[in-house]
Amino acid sequence: MDKERIEKAVREILFAVGENPDREGLVDTPKRIAKMYEEIFSGLNENPADHLEIYFQQEKYEELVLIKDIPFYSVCEHHLVPFFGKAHVGYLPKNGKLTGLSKLARVVETVAKRPQLQERLTATVADTIQRKLEPYGVIVVVEAEHMCMTMRGVKKPGSKTITSAVRGVFESDAKARSEVMSFINFGK
Q1: CA distance from start to end of the chain
Q2: What is the Cα–Cα distance from 86 to 71, expressed in whole angstroms?
Q3: Which residues does the chain have with pLDDT short of 70?
Q4: Which residues form the GTP cyclohydrolase I domain (predicted)?
Q5: Which residues is 73 bridged to in the sheet?
Q6: Residue 6 phi/psi, 5° resolution?
Q7: Edge to edge, what strands does the sheet with 82-92 contain?
Q8: Residues at the annotated binding site for Zn(2+)?
Q9: Cβ contacts of residue 32 below 8 Å, gap of 6+?
Q10: Helices 101-112 and 118-133: crossing angle, nearest 10°?
Q11: In the prediction, which pLDDT does 56 show?
């Protein structure tokens, strides 16, 4: 990450909007923005599949594993403003190939920490798990609020965008897919 270049660009943006980047409240803003970008875009330098290296292959478990309500924060690549929400990630392990529960959350976090589209985030999480764990199936549902719709443009705070990606058995088995969706919606 080229933080010095980011700092220069932020100074230029401040000038361009009519601000004085040398005034007291803004003097360190370019540095803060550069440091923030390093953090919120750290997923650009990571492979989400690396988080799925640990398997528990001795287990005979081949039923649904679902983690609901994984919080995430990302940045819309169209306007460079945040979108945030929850991801629900489920898979049907095959041949006892399990991963640690936190590993699924780390995949979501890594993919979210990139300039992103919600649709791509959803598909990338599902594809990563499907490729790495080779389960019978994967289902990922993401619900998010986009600041590009709430603080600008149409200005509709509270509206949610829901995307899903299904792989493997969930693509062809409507009953299995429906069961997972009922678990995701349970308690809402």
Answers
A1: 40
A2: 4
A3: 54
A4: 6-184
A5: 84
A6: -60, -45
A7: 115-116, 65-76, 82-92, 137-146, 161-168
A8: 76, 79, 148
A9: none
A10: 140
A11: 75
Considering only the top CATH level, what class is 51-185? alpha beta
> Two tokens at 167?
């792989």
Q: Where are the domains of the chain?
A: 3-43, 51-185
Residues contacting 108, CB < 8 A, separation 6+: 70, 72, 87, 89, 121, 125
Report, as residue numbers or ranges, the catalytic residues: 76-79, 118, 146, 148
H or E element, residue 106: helix 101-112
Contact 133, 97 (CB under 8 A): yes
Which DSSP string corresponds to 22-90? TSTTTTTHHHHHHHHHHHHTGGGG--GGGGG---BTT----S-EEEEEEEEEEEETTTS-EEEEEEEEE
pLDDT for 77: 97
C-alpha 122/C-alpha 100 separation (Å) is 20
Binding residues: 76, 79, 148
Give bridge partners of residue 71 from the DSSP assignment: 86
User: How far apart, in whole angstroms, are the C-alpha atoms of residue 87 and residue 67?
Assistant: 8
What CATH class is the domain 3-43?
A: mainly alpha
pLDDT, one tens digit per residue, over 52-96 is: 976 777 778 999 999 999 999 999 999 999 999 999 999 999 988
Q: What is the pTM for the complete model shown?
A: 0.94
